[in-house]
Amino acid sequence: MKAIPVDTILIEQKSPPFVIAEMSGNHNGSLDRALQIVDAAADSGATAIKLQTYTPDSMTIQNDGERFKISANHALWGERSLYDLYEQAQTPWGWHQEIFRRARSRGLIPFSSPFDEAAVDLLEELDAPLYKIASLEIGDKALLERVAATGKPIILSNGASSFVEIAEAISVIRAVGNDQIVVLACTSSYPASPSEANLRTIPVLRDALGVQVGLSDHTMGIGVSVAAVALGATVIEKHVTLNRQDGGVDSEFSLEPAELRALVTETNAAWQALGSPTPTLTSGETESRRLKRSLYVVEDVNEGDQISSKNVRSIRPAGGLEPKHLAQVIGRTFPQPLKAGTPLTWEVL
């Protein structure tokens, strides 16, 4: 699968997971808090910080009809109008430049999910190095074409989408001449249950679509993300906040800084553990191999003594014949005197 360059980093199987800290609305309406989240993401070792670039009017209209409300049984936002929710969660466009500047100064890659063409124009002015298309926007052909035309890598979330819809979105992007695509397996519910993560789709999506594949993880904790890396995910996206107790639209399923640090550490460990599909001895096993069992003379013997289970045993360390040869040597005679602790080898016999 082709590697995707983002700034100086490659998204590929040979590189550590590209870990995205999603700020979303967890700034709680405060630019200072937004900048603190950037700093926390950098201190935690994340690769990138992601925003969402929209206004409530670019997302929906003010309307109190039931169609324009979140369902009553929603775990977090039940009965809220779409307009009010987006008004609360939006990241003001005037903040973007300062957030991008802070992120770059801390070694993070800043980027965003645009929700209309005007948002793409803003992000292009800020020289965003890649783009994310949110799950519910992958059917917006005009938006896909506008983002694809930037020539920059594109991350697609597949939440609430069929395989056909994902494939169609990829076709739209490729038709513009852009083949730098990552698909994130995503369960578009908030919070999501691990039982609905369907991580086995990760290698299937990768092979069927010919793209890098990752995970947009809305579950609690980091276990699902670690498992995703073991199945080949090269990108991990998690929502982050400073403290869940502070509240906020996404706080309930967001990671706190210490948890984000653990996510970076453990997904990196999972990536390192992938290794090779061929069972081989590792350099770290040299000492263990030296200590494997073998046949040794375990008491002093004289020339002509018969080899028995009393004077020859399978013990640690290595150096003698493999234990499987014990039956072959029992009953033979020693051709020379030997001290206890002498490895029993064909040369000795």
UniProtKB/TrEMBL annotation:
PROSITE patterns per the record?
AFP_LIKE (PS50844)
User: InterPro entries, alphabetically?
Assistant: AFP_Neu5c_C_sf, Aldolase_TIM, PseI-like, PseI/NeuA/B-like_N, Pseudaminic_synth_PseI, SAF, SAF_AFP_Neu5Ac, SAF_PseI/NeuA/NeuB
| Domain AFP-like: start-end pairs | 294-349
Q: Which Pfam families match?
A: NeuB (PF03102), SAF (PF08666)
Q: What highest taxon heads this organism's lineage?
A: Bacteria
The alphabetized list of GO BP terms reads:
carbohydrate biosynthetic process
GO molecular-function annotation terms? N-acylneuraminate-9-phosphate synthase activity
Q: What is this protein called?
A: Pseudaminic acid synthase
